[in-house]
Amino acid sequence: MPEPTFTSRFTSRRGLLFGTAAVSAGALLTGCTSNDPKDEEPAANDRPAADDKPGKQVTIGFAGPQADHGWLNAINDNAKSRAKKYSDVTLEITEGSNDTAQQIGQIETLINKKVDVLVVLPADGKALTQVGLKAMRAGIPVVNLDRIFNTPQAYRCWIGGDNYGMGLNAGHYIGEKLKGKADARVIELAGLDNLELTKQRTQGFDDALKNYPNIKKVARQAAEFTVESGQAKMAQLLQAQPRFDALWNHDDDQGVGALRAIEQAGRDDFLMVGGAGALSAFQAIKQDNGVLKATVLYPPTMAASAIDLARALGQGKGVGGLAEYEIPASITLYSAVVDKENVDQYMSTGFR
Amino acid sequence: MTQPVSPPRGSTDKVPQVPLPAWRGLVARADVRTLSLLGVLAALIVIGGVTKPDEFLDTRNLQLVLTQASVIGVVTVGMTFVITSGGIDLSVGAIVALASVWATTVATQEYGFGGILFTSVLVGLGCGLVNGLLIAYGGMVPFIATLAMLASARGLALQITDGKTQIVTVDGILDLGERDAYVLGVPPLVMVFAVVTIIGWLLLNRTTFGRRTVAVGGNAEAARLAGIDVRRQRLYLYLLSGLCCGIAAFLLIILSGSGQNTNGNLYELDAIAAAIIGGTLLSGGRGTITGSVLGVLIFTTITNIFALNNLQSDVQQIAKGAIIVAAVLVQRRTASTT
Amino acid sequence: MAPEPPLLSMSGITKSFPGVRALDGVDLDVQAGEVHCLLGQNGAGKSTLIKVLAGAHQPDGGTIRWRGEDVTLRSPIAAMRLGIATIYQELDLVEHLSVAENVHLGHEPTTAGFVVRGKAARASTAALLHRLGHPEIDPARLVGELSAAQQQIVSMARALSHDVRLIVMDEPSAALDPDEVDNLFRIVGDLTADGVAVVYISHRLEEIRRIGDRVTVLKDGRAVAGALPAKTTPTREVVALMTGRNVEYVFPERPVTDAPAAGKPLLEVRGLARDGEFEPLDLTLYPGEIVGLAGLVGSGRSEILETIYGARKATAGQVVVDGRALRPGSVRSAVRAGLGLAPEERKAQALLMLESVTRNVSVSSLSRFSRAGWIDRGAERDAARAATRELSLRPDNPSVPVRTLSGGNQQKAVLARWILRGCRVLLLDEPTRGVDVGARAELYAVVRRLADEGLGVLLVSSEVPEVLGLADRVLVLREGRVVHTAPARELDEHRVLDLVMEGSPAS
After folding, report:
1. Does C353 contact B7 at a Cβ distance shorter than 8 Å?
2. Percent of chain B with pLDDT over 90
3. What's the first-to-final CA gap in chain C, in angstroms?
4. Same domain, yes or no, for A42 and A136?
5. d(Cα B283, Cα B83) in Å, to the nearest integer?
6. Is A122 in the same domain as A229?
């Protein structure tokens, strides 16, 4: 058996025994993230911020964490394909790292290269604040993606998802579906419990449910954003709750495992709402032959938008559709609920 | 020869005066430990039965607990052999991850059921072979060699998946996890776990392989001077652990219907903890498959009871730590009194 | 006139270990400023006595008076506080620490109680090393990088770093070259001139004559003579004291004929050598013969046995069994050819202490009781029982854990392992170490019977009477070299002791 080496992500892939798999997966991915302008009008946030006409050349430095999760991987792909779309943008992308020190080093390298704009998704927002400040002082505007720095001085513009809003929208969606049902029971399959964002999602969900006195949350277990943990925790929840009406699952990746557990238990007596917006979830929603009826977005397209913002900053332009001359300091994305009605519109943004 | 020699007066010789009958010796030593584990398990069952009588004391729940125990259980059987021989395998979780993603690439899935099974087992064996060669013939310390394997296998798994979840579409695999596949109420995963356990038990207790494992762990120098090929034995042991990881990866693919680079997270710690609680000596020389399996069942049952009672993960983790400490302390006491 | 009380006065010290009474009422008086020599064969109790003196062992009985007052030495620290320092034969230095750190280990000069003042430690260490005549040793170097002789000096510096009144030196000259020995004697002279007492242990009579003042001779856990004048007591008298028996060992009858059993040799060792351990050795062993190797610690006897067995790889020569050469450095090749080793450190090198007697006995013969790896446990148990019965192993229950056995019976378990294996050449390394006196006779009889049944036995022992009583032929070793070969009946203990200590037959 040939032992794969670590020389390069791409050459080594082909050296694998069943290497073609990964390659074809890659091809599928480029298909679905849509860098083809001829696509039927895709997601709203796929619309370019400034205009499409080539302008001043801009070099954008991009630093993100290690893509060890479907969503993070989609972030990288969104950024790359968006940058490719503009002939006036050069993207300097670093190897993703979860090591704070290493990421600081990578960003400092980008500063020294004098890129025009920086887009940073920090592995740890607090720990990377200093290097954000350093870039801003060096006159390089920073677009802070999703995980926020400690101080607004460290970025020119923050763009990111709304974890509280995810929970809120999931709660309202379920609330409306169960309206009129007396003594309704819901359960929650949360993500990694030691993350702040998990607490925010749960908080939003609980706050929304307060509006529906007929609904009671009867159980909550935390998985770890992995398929394996999703299956394990969901299997236990199903055994613990012989009857419930709705389930909110924080993350579509662990949802793959949760759906397996539901299938293995032979249950279909409730509705399920997911989170994040994975392609597999969209497909299941579209087919509508299982418990998964909707998912709440935490869109990885924010990386594409960040490239748009960075380009606009580099060219000194504003955002289209707003009266402002300047780009806003902070943009919180809306956590839209995707269900059967609107799933086609989002299909191209789904990540694997 | 004439009379047995009595020790000189005033000596504190520890020669036993009256040897116990063999069966009593067995109950007194080996089984005190097993009995105490069964006692812990019984206590847990009482707790579960009292707090959630309907949900806990239920055939479906028994099936659930055993199914959830299967994957880590198979890994623990392999780990028990390695620890018994005085070694350690920190790479089990990473090998499970690598085997599960390699076996679920689109290309592998084209070969269907056989391709997935074959690839999982082969990747497990391959990693075990590398571990074994490095340790037995490369003279590396098991801790370091398997730590290196942990890092490399996880990295390779990430590289294969690119962080994506590889969903399994082979129906033959998915069906095995569902209720229709249960034979007389026994899930196929549990059957595999049972077979691995029985084979492991026989291998450790009834074969020359098991004897040599114990000898190498108890006193490697004595084993060498007694004419045992210590190095070859070590190679086989890490191969065995790798094989168990490959089987576990296959089970995990059935269970989760996917391959992901995050699979098998912290399995190494769970497997070591279960083996140690079961009564296998971390320093080697004594191992028990029965104890290891009971250790796994205890952990799985705790998780089950906590989930049924809707306790959160922080409490679960604290309890798990407390139980490890308590079990090891109890073991030390029983060890010192026998 | 009020006589000055002795610096140290030990009386009636007893100490027992499981199966052995190591000290049986020992008296020892040491005066300030004298060099008091301790003599005795291996197992006479010297090591136990100095460990009691160092606070490492607690005596079962007897009193210790220090400068006229009763004291209890509860721990090594307590002994050190009184001013008793011990330099062990096996150096107890930490290799990965520097010289200065070793010298001050446990009493580092500190600021505010915990900040180690490295510079001060190095300076005082340098001063000590200068006083010991070795200013060339750098206090900052790691001890592991030093030669054995230099390590000895560091050990001594450590002893002197305390306010010391009595120093125990256990065979300090064993690892030293002649001119280093001279330096050692100069140091001993300086110390005694300052009023420090030295308890000096050595096998070399000539050294004792040069620096000793008085001699105490230990024998079987008792002081058979105290306060002999070191310079004038005749060698013959000293050796007689060391060898005179209280308990006569009972050795089995030797076969009448001296000539080796007819036929081909069983084992031939041709020019076998290991650099730095022993010089090329030739040896032939016939079936039914017991050949003894006599020598002191460090004479290379254990190394020779282990090299024959393949546990160490020879740098030259070969081992031939039944005309076929063994693969060098391969224990498995030796075991297959029919060799079996009962090593010196039974617990560390032979026994699986957590396992039963049966499993310890069967471990080398597993393939005999198994088909396709499957063990027939009934056959295993029966065979182990037969082998242990043949040796009268007690208790007669092979399912008990081997760790519950006495030393003699543990040794029998090791022998049973090789009997079961059908081994043809037994290599015995200190077979009676840790075996009490009564059980020894039984072991001797077993070994002789095995030889009578056609085995060849190669025996290593530091107890000269054992070698002389049991072996048919004896090779006397000194510093890795065979200095004499003779039939055992032509040798006596006195002669062998002379040979191993002096290197040439005493005149």
Report:
1. no
2. 74
3. 45
4. yes
5. 7
6. no
Length of chain B: 338
Mean pLDDT of B138-151: 96
- Which CATH number covers residue A49? 3.40.50.2300
* Residues A279 and A314 occupy one common structural domain: no
A23: left (phi over 0), alpha (psi -120 to 50) or beta: alpha
For chain A, give the number of residues: 352
Evaluate whether residue A91 is within a structural domain. yes
> C373 pLDDT exceeds 80?
yes
Collect all residues of chain B within an 8 Å Cβ-Cβ radius of residue A1.
Answer: 122, 126
How does pLDDT run across A121-150, given as a tens digit for each residue? 998 888 899 999 999 999 999 999 998 999
Vertex B314 angle, CA B311 and B317, to 5°: 100
What contacts B124, CB < 8 A, 6 or more positions away? B95, B96, B99, B242, B243, B244, B245, B246, B247, B248, B249
Task: Tell me: pLDDT of A256 over 90.
Answer: yes
C443, pLDDT greater than 50: yes
Could you tell me the pTM of the whole model? 0.79
CB within 8 Å: A67 and B261: no
Q: Does residue A9 sit within a domain?
A: no
Partners of B219 on chain C (C-beta within 8 Å) are: 348-349, 351-353
Residue A85 included in any domain: yes
Q: What is the ipTM of this complex?
A: 0.84
| Domains contained in chain B, CATH given | 35-336 (1.10.3470)
Option in C16, C438, C445 nearest B10 (CB): C16
Minimal CA separation from A31 to chain B, in Å = 15
Separation in Å, CA of B180 to nearest CA in chain C: 37
Per-window interface: A 270-299 vs B, CB < 8 A: 278, 280
Are A271 and A313 within one domain?
Answer: no
Identify whether residues A181 and A263 lie together within a single domain: yes
Over residues B265-287, the pLDDT tens digits come to 999 999 999 999 898 988 999 99
Instruction: Look at A236 and B307 and tell me if their CB atoms are within 8 Å.
Output: yes
Cα of B97 to nearest chain A Cα, Å: 11
Same domain, residue pair A129 and A239: no
Residue A269 sits in which domain range?
A: 163-297
Residue A344 located in a structural domain: no
Cis peptide before C139 (omega within 30 of 0): no
**CB contacts < 8 Å between A and B, how many?**
168
